[in-house]
Design goal:
alpha/beta; Rossmann fold; two-stranded parallel sheet; 6 strands; binds NADP nicotinamide-adenine-dinucleotide phosphate
Amino acid sequence: MLGGTSGIGLATTEMLRDAGAEVIAASRRETDIDGVECVQVDVLDREGLHTLFEKHHGFDYLVNAATGGPRAIGPFLEMDLDGFQNSFAKLWGYVNSVRLGVPHISPQGAVVLYSGYPARKWRAGTLAIGSVGGSVEAFIRLAANEIAPVRINGVSPGLIDTPMSPLEGEAREEYYRAGSQGHLIARAGTSEEVASAAMFLLENEFVTGTIVDVDGGAICT
Ligand SMILES: NC(=O)c1ccc[n+]([C@@H]2O[C@H](COP(=O)([O-])OP(=O)(O)OC[C@H]3O[C@@H](n4cnc5c(N)ncnc54)[C@H](OP(=O)(O)O)[C@@H]3O)[C@@H](O)[C@H]2O)c1
């Protein structure tokens, strides 16, 4: 479980653990999670990933929720282009993990990646992260053809209340209230609501190359 120590990734780690799986949660910072082996790996460090996968050769599931690094948000014509480019660290982390991880997954195995609703609901100010999410979704569909019988799917979260937002107190509440205004389910989602979609995609052996929206109907409006 890459990026498995916070937010959506942490909820996925805990759900897998509670379902009886032996889970390894990886991220850059040192962390402790009850009943889970935690390791420090940067998804942009290919050598580190290779060593991790080789050590656990024959594993069943690979889930990557790592954000990769800082993301650029705001008007495109005012955007720092290095920031835009750096937002793609998420894609490269996902690509690294699938390229280096799949040779070590069991043939019945499955991969889940997380895209995001900016790729599917086009709004001003989200061009960089929407482009990254769109690339992640194209990658999933194309990779499904190449890595079968290993399955690969994606979950597209809407606005989800996770530590990704540094805001606190009233400012945080207002951010999620304003951000979900007009959505069919007008609130931020929880990490657990997103993680349960990943569990479905891991367990259902007839699903590959698809994306599940968990966004409170955000893209319908
Ligand atoms: N929250 C939302 O509203 C939302 C909406 C749409 C899409 N998403 C997507 O959902 C996924 C999870 O987001 P989240 O909100 O749960 O984020 P989060 O709470 O910030 O957690 C991100 C996790 O990724 C790890 N990580 C980041 N960069 C890494 C790297 N280079 N190498 C290894 N681990 C790394 C972090 O740990 P370390 O910092 O210790 O490395 C942390 O465990 C992301 O792909 C995000 O783009 C989220």
